[in-house]
Amino acid sequence: MAEGGEVRRGPGEVVLTGAGVFSAFGAGTEPLMDAVLAGRPGFAPVERFGVGGRRTGHAAVHPGSPVLADELPRMIGLACEQAGLPAALRARCPLHLAVHGDPALPRVPAGERAAHGAGRFAEDVARAAGLSGVARAYTSACVASSTAVADAAALVARGRAERIVVAAGYLVDADQFAVFDAGRALARDGQVRPFSAGRSGLLLGDAVAAVVVESAAAARDRGARPLARLAGWGRTGDAHHVVRPRPDGAGLARAISAALHRAGLAPERIGYVNAHGSGSPAGDSAEAAALHRVFGPAAASLPVSSTKSVHGQALEAGALLELVVTVSALAAGRLPVNAGWLGPDPDCRLGLVLDDPAPARSPYALSLTTAFGGANTALLVAAA
Questions:
Q1: Distance (Å, rounded) from C-alpha 75 to C-alpha 55?
Q2: Fewer CB near the last or first residue (10 Å), C or N of the chain?
Q3: Are β-strands 14-23 and 207-215 bridged in parallel, bridged antiparallel, or unpaired?
């Protein structure tokens, strides 16, 4: 660990230089941040498809019928524009894309399906966005986009790439809505209430996001101003159960510790955690246990919120959306509200941000994600 708990600096430093985001609140970070800082949920009755006969009919859905194949290149374009990347540099950028799969695949005749799939879809998106066409697809559920970010950061830190665009997309669809409803995972009362007494589950939400992951040296050379530093990342798999989290949070705690170690930071330097916090009874309790494993008694006062309480669970795109929210919160100096709160749960003793956004008192924050099968990721960012 670096002396004094400071982040190690050097040729392997990784920064984020651009971001683009689309959510139920519209395109851009401004409407999204207005909602998460106010703790104003975007959940409403779903009109995009029929929800008759479902246990709940709510999600955080943008009006109309946005098309993933259109929104992904648009958000990549916004991220590259903010990063100041000219067309010539974009054309050399590979793409890491997190998606549930090729959205066109179900409509493709059986004899033509070999020419489709997530990998081919990622290549098509890359070319449509003016990138190199070299693409890698990630389909590993809720940790898909955080894994894509960690892989990109590792490649950049090792000097194997100057910059990589990471993008992710999920638009609430009838099939996944039905699956989660049938599994009794959706909140019955139409609200997500992370870490709260009386919470009853998650709700789905739209998200399309993109970021430019770049070496700090390359960004300096072209005069780009970073949005944040990606100071550390950690990934673990505890394989406790197919869908249930490990109750003691040991796997997620190891991912957090790995991110801290990579950044050269002591736990007490962290000033905010954007938690996975899906609103499920078991998942939130396990995550609280993980935070207590890492932060000890300080977890009870550490500022924590789950912005899923506002924008919903965006599956493969959720981690990237939440990374953008975390970076934007540090830049604004204000921490998002944990919405939907009804009262304390003794299994979730955390310093939740309630009612009003809290001031950011540290430049360091964690964005955490867990997934079915015991997968866990932690991304540690530092204000620019």
A1: 33
A2: N
A3: antiparallel
